[in-house]
Write a structure and sequence with these properties.
five-stranded parallel beta sheet; binds magnesium ion; single chain; about 50% helix; Rossmann fold; binds adenosine-5'-triphosphate; globular
Amino acid sequence: MTNAKISNIVVAIDGSDSSRKAADYAVSLAKEKDAKVSAVVVVTIHRSDALRGSAETLHKIVNKQVNIAGGWLNSVKEDADKNNVKFESRVIKTTTSVPEEIIEYAKDKKSDLIVMGTRGRTGFKKMLLGSVASAVVTHAGCPVMVVR
Ligand SMILES: Nc1ncnc2c1ncn2[C@@H]1O[C@H](COP(=O)(O)OP(=O)(O)OP(=O)(O)O)[C@@H](O)[C@H]1O
Ligand SMILES: [Mg+2]
C-alpha cells in the first residue's frame, strides 16, 4: 500500500476567491494532520511589459506584483498562525510557465499534496477548470486537490 501520510501541503495562491478557498482548506487540513503549509504565488514577467517600457518600468511592474502577492500570502499566514499551523511561503518570478513553477516548488518542498482552486483571477467564468489548475493536475508528481 502507498504511504498516504500528509506532512507537507503546498497551496497555490493567485489572489482569487477560489484560491482563498483552497488556502482555507489547506490550513484546516494541515491542522488536522499536523502538517506544514507552504504557500506559493508565481508572478509572471511578461515580455510585452518589457517591450512597452524600459527595464526600469518592468522592474517596477514586477515589484508591485510581488508586493501584492506578499499581501495575499500574509493573510494566509495569519490564518495559519491562528490555527497553530506551521507555515512558510514563497513568491516565484518566472518568464515561462506558472504550472511548471508550482510543480517544481512542490517537489522542492517534498509536498504530499498540492491544493488549488478551480479557477483564478484571469480566466473566463464559463471555464470549469482553469488552465493552471488543469496543467498541475496533469503533470504534478504528487496528488492534487482542486477545491470547489
Ligand atoms: N500565478 C499563480 N500562482 C499560484 N497559483 C496559481 C496561479 N495562477 C493560478 N493558480 C492556482 O490555480 C487555480 C486555478 O486558476 P487558473 O489560473 O487555472 O484559472 P483561471 O485564472 O480561471 O483561468 P486561466 O488562467 O486558465 O485563464 C487558482 O485558484 C490557484 O490556486
Ligand atoms: Mg489564471
